[in-house]
Specification:
This protein has 206 residues and is an alpha/beta fold. Helix content is 34%, strand content 14%.
Length: 206
């Protein structure tokens, strides 16, 4: 698959050939969905917590006689039915992560890239570099390229000026090649890959 390469100024800068084994597959929504669930579950903090009856400070003495009170039989006031008591079956800190085989994660990323390619939503950029970290100047370049909602993937290292300038542009995400993931690809309308990013992906999937 051949795609034209453009610069930030919108000028043509040759073309690149994308590997059909990565960008030319027929996407499977079930595998992509499993990967998105895996990512979202893994990033949950899981720090929610409540106190159960064993964590409530107070006396454990039986506060009412077992018989003769005319009321229900109770033990301690730390139980959940009393005000100030512990909560029954409340949440405790835990990991929400779910398991997913590595080969499925790799396949899901290929399917996400192929889905973008099939929809014509991939743009190949010569370089993601600017001379100064001015957001206004970079936004003009994005407007010229029609980038309103996009994920930009560069090589192993990001250009510092470009990263700083793009940070304040809404609906624009910038990641190094090793940070590319299914969820961020799908949540943006356009996927912008630099030539360095394409080379890094070819090495990654070779």
């Amino acid at each position: 698959m051949d795609i034209k390469v453009i610069t930030l100024e919108g000028k043509a800068s040759g073309k690149v050939t994308l590997d059909d084994k990565v960008f030319g597959l027929e996407p499977r929504q079930d595998i992509i969905h499993r990967m998105v669930r895996y990512q979202l579950a893994k990033r949950q903090a899981g720090t929610h917590d409540v106190k159960n009856r064993s964590e409530i400070k107070g006396s454990t003495r039986k506060f009412v006689a077992q018989k003769g009170s005319g009321g229900a039989r109770h033990s301690t006031r730390k139980v959940n039915i009393f005000k100030g008591g512990g909560r029954a079956f409340g949440p405790t800190p835990r990991s929400h992560a779910i398991g997913l085989q590595k080969k499925v994660r790799v396949l899901a990323l290929k399917f996400a890239l192929s889905a973008k390619a099939k929809a014509g939503e991939i743009i190949i950029l010569d370089k993601a570099e600017v001379k100064s970290p001015k957001t206004a100047d970079l936004r003009k370049s994005f407007d010229g390229l029609g980038l309103k909602n996009a994920l930009i993937i560069d090589g192993a290292e990001l250009n510092e000026n470009f990263s700083l300038a793009a940070k304040n542009v809404p609906m624009i995400d910038v990641l190094p090649a090793q940070g590319i993931n299914v969820y961020d690809i799908l949540r943006r309308n356009k996927l912008v890959l630099t030539k360095a990013a394409v080379a890094a992906l070819e090495v990654r999937f070779s």
